[in-house]
Amino acid sequence: MTSALLDGPRLAPRSGAPSQLIVLLHGYGADGKDLIELGRQWQRLLPQAAFVAPNAPERVPMSAVGRQWFALTMREPGERWKGVTQARPALDAFLDAELRRHALSSSALALVGFSQGTMMALHCGLRREAAPAVIVGYSGLLVLEPGKERQSLKAEVRSKPPILLVHGEADDLIPASALFESAEALAEAAIPCEWHLSPRLGHGIDAEGLRQGGEFIAAALARARRAASL
To answer: Which residues pair with 165 in a beta bridge?
Structure first.
C-alpha cells in the first residue's frame, strides 16, 4: 500500500490558512463521506483546522461503496492485529503527506476514529515517532498483539498523546467492555486516557459524545500550541 491509495473528502478551515489538521478515520463498510460530517459539526469549535476523511484502501467484498482498513471475518484469531499492522504503513504515509501539504508539525495533528477507524487511530498514533497532539476514538478498541497482549504495547509505544475513548453503553457490535479493557491497557502503558460511556447508545455517536470529542480535541491542540511556543 502507498499513500497514493488514500484520499477522501476535505474541509478547508473557516478562518485563514490551516494551523491544525484533523484526520477522521471511518469504520468498516463506510467511507470518508460518512465521517467528514464530524468535521462540519466541529468547524465552529476549530475554525483554523483542516479536516480530511480518507477512504480506507480496500473495498468491502460484495459492497458497491463500502471500504475497509482491513478484512474482518470475526473467525480468524489475531485478524485484527494482522489487519492494523498491515494497514499502518499506508496510513502513516498519508499522515506524513498531509502534514507536509499544510506545512504543519505532528503537534498540530489530531486523529479521530470510529469503530475500525479507532483501531487504526490508536495503533498508528501510538507508534508514530512524533506524537500527534490528541487521539479520540469512538465505538472502537485498542488492538493488542495475541499472546503478548499488554506487554507488547509497552514495548512498541513511541508516543503518548492524550486520548479520549467514547462508547455506547448498548453497543452490540463492539461491546462497552472493550472501552474499559482498552483504557486499562493504556493506563498500564502510562498513556493518558479519559473515557465517556453514553447511556442507551448503540454502535454510534450521540450529541454528548460529539461535544466531548470536539472540546477534548480543541483543548489538546491549544495545549500543544502553547507548548510549541515556549
So the answer is: 137, 195
Compute the Cα dihedral for 189, 194, 20, 6 and give only its sign: positive
User: Is residue 182 within 8 Å of residue 165, measured between CB atoms?
Assistant: yes
pLDDT digits 0-9 by tens, 62-91: 887 899 999 988 777 789 999 999 999 999
Structural domain range at position 213: 3-229
Give 46-56 pLDDT, tens digit per residue: 999 999 999 99
- Tell me if residue 135 falls in helix, strand or coil: strand
Residues paired with 20 in a beta bridge: 49
* DSSP character at residue 3: G
C-alpha cell at 65: 461503496
Task: Write out the three cell numbers for 113.
Answer: 476514529
Alpha carbon distance 142, 131 (integer Å): 17
SS3 label, residue 112: strand
26, three cell numbers: 471511518
Cα-Cα-Cα-Cα torsion 117, 129, 83, 170, nearest 10 degrees, comes to -30
**What's the angle, vertex CA 11, arms to CA 197 and CA 71, rounded to 5?**
55
Count: domains in the chain: 1
